[in-house]
Amino acid sequence: MEYDLSKLGIEKDLHYECITTTLSKNGIRNAEAFSLVYLGKGNVHCQIFEGSKTLKNILDTKEYAVNITQDPLVFTYATLDCLGDEYYAEDEGMAIIKDTPSYIIVDVEDIEVKTPEDIPIKSDNNIYLIYGKIRKVVINDESVKAYNRGMSGLIEGLVNLSRYKIVDDAKRQEYMAKLIENQRIIEKVSDKKTKNAMAKLMAEYEKN
Questions:
Q1: Closest CA to 100 of 81, 129, 78
Q2: 41 CB contacts (<8 Å, ≥6 apart)?
Q3: Predicted confidence pLDDT, tens digits, the chain (208 residues)
Q4: CA quadruple 55, 94, 35, 130: dihedral positive or negative?
Q5: Which residues contact 38 (CB under 8 A, 6 or more apart)?
Q6: Cβ proximity of 153 and 182 under 8 Å
Q7: β-bridge partners, 20
Q8: Are strands 102-114 and 29-40 parallel, antiparallel or unpaired?
Q9: 161-199 as b/e, with b when 16 or more CB fall inside 10 Å?
Q10: How far is CA 131 from CA 43, 137, 160, 199, in A?
């Protein structure tokens, strides 16, 4: 089935930062921040490094939920593994974030394991590529969209541009290094409009 996820701010083949919630075999709830990609026709993809509680729960239960939110505390508590019980609710026996603007429940269909030699990120752990099929989409608030972190990199570059023109060479190198890294991220996760904006910004830096 093809899902129109545009109301969630999600486009096909782009990366979005979301909160993934799972239940262990013993019913213990867990939340972590992970990147989600919509592949089209109801198919989604995420990748998780070995050692994550979320990964263990997904391997055991073959399901998870993706919570669309821009709440900074939820992202922080989930990442620090200290999201309290008061933040959770349930739907179809699946843990979700209470009052989350939108969420997607996913059934896992395939799992592919990549070793550190197979991936560009330096790590001693395997990475698991999780492929799933959307079971359910719930939209509670269309005004809140899934977050693509490329926008943050672009904004940082724009803010630093005026400073770049007046600081010393050492600081200029620091700003340029940040810009190059943010451009790398944008090329990986963002849409054409953001990529074009970053290219124009890079050209402006290079003039100065």
A1: 78
A2: 1, 2
A3: 778 899 999 999 999 999 999 999 999 999 999 999 999 999 999 999 888 999 999 999 999 999 999 999 999 999 999 999 999 999 999 999 999 999 999 999 999 998 866 665 566 788 999 999 999 999 999 999 999 999 999 999 999 999 998 999 999 999 999 999 999 999 999 999 999 999 999 999 998 8
A4: positive
A5: 3, 5, 10, 11, 12, 13, 14, 44
A6: yes
A7: 32, 66
A8: unpaired
A9: eeebeeeeeeebeebbeebeebbebbeebbeeebbebbe
A10: 7, 17, 38, 32
Exposed e or buried b for every residue in 49-80, given b needs 16+ CB within 10 A?
beebebbbbbeebebbbbbbbebeebbebbee
Phi, psi (deg, nearest 5) at residue 161: -60, -50
Closest CA to 101 of 148, 147, 149, 139: 139
Place of tokens 């399901």: 63
On the 0-12 / 13-18 / 19+ scale of CB atoms within 10 A, 21 is buried
Beta bridge partners of 202: none
Q: Which residue has the tokens 């991220």?
A: 185
